[in-house]
Specification:
8 helices; 33% helix; alpha/beta; Rossmann fold; eight-stranded mixed beta sheet; 280 residues; single chain
């Protein structure tokens, strides 16, 4: 474990930050230590898309606090068209997600004086992030937390949950609610955007040679196994972090649709592992 040469008594603080272009303003929460050490690099935490982005706020916040306690800077942000960022739901398209990642990278690079960034994606955020990172060419440092790597599976799971909420969960016990064609889990997502997301399968997308991946998972699956093979064949280092399977959130359980997904022990375990090696 690397030594942390900062004032341990100083507090971590988090505060809002607006960034991005005037026509694409993004909202983020910047976590920093009072004795910030630029040499520790920074971490960008990417939230899942749609409803899971709301459910995982506290988990991502906790990991960001752990990272910031080492003297690194951590940024959580809302994708354009979601949360407190500008824009509307239909603008949550893939090209725009790439723009958001660019804007976040510029913000963190400006604060730390370099591109020593660790990229973290939770769940469906792995789709845009793993599509974006190969465009950077140089090696990258990536953390994938319970990643969803096949777009068609992600979209299918959203549709199943949407149907369950409308007809099976008891949410509309005394009335039949017919959604608009572009309504999905309370978001407006057009058919073309869903078709684009469905077409992505990043299990066969290699990261730049010399990159490092830390893959935190509660359970292994065929998709992550294919992804690991792809990376190792491209000289990418992959370290698997095994989380306690009993703590895996019931992502697709209709009765937990609106609850926060906060597996405490897994969040603490991941935060400690990442704090020891941010952007080496």
């Amino acid at each position: 474990m690397n030594a942390i040469a900062i004032d341990e008594a100083a507090a971590v603080s988090s505060g809002p930050v607006l960034f991005g272009g005037a026509d694409r303003r993004l909202f983020g929460l910047l976590h920093a230590h009072a004795a910030q050490d630029a040499g520790r690099g920074s971490m960008l935490l990417c939230a899942p898309l749609l409803q899971e982005g709301i459910r995982t706020h506290r988990a991502l916040w906790s990991v960001a606090e752990s990272v910031a306690a080492t003297g690194a800077t951590a940024l959580c942000f809302d994708w354009y068209g979601s949360g407190d960022s500008a824009g509307a739901d239909p603008e949550l398209g893939l090209a725009g997600l790439f723009d958001d990642l660019d804007a976040a990278r510029r913000l963190l690079s400006g604060r730390s004086g370099g591109d020593r960034i660790t990229w973290l994606a939770l769940r469906s955020a792995a789709l845009p992030l793993l599509s974006y990172l190969p465009t950077l060419v140089q090696p990258v440092d990536v953390v994938l937390w319970d990643p969803q790597l096949v777009g068609a599976d992600v979209v299918d799971s959203w549709r199943r949950q949407h149907h369950a909420q409308l007809y099976d969960s008891g949410r509309y016990a005394h009335a039949r609610h017919e959604p608009d064609p572009d309504d999905l889990l309370g978001f407006r997502v057009d058919a073309q955007t869903l078709a684009t997301w469905s077409s992505f399968d990043v299990t066969a997308t290699p990261l730049p040679r010399g990159s490092r991946v830390r893959l935190a998972q509660w359970q292994a699956c065929d998709a992550t196994a294919r992804f690991i093979r792809t990376q190792q064949e491209n000289a990418v280092e992959v370290d698997v972090i095994e989380l306690e399977p009993s703590e895996q959130p019931a992502w697709e359980e209709p009765r937990q649709f609106g609850s926060q997904a906060y597996p405490r022990r897994s969040v603490a375990q991941l935060g400690q592992r990442l704090a020891a090696g941010v952007a080496r």
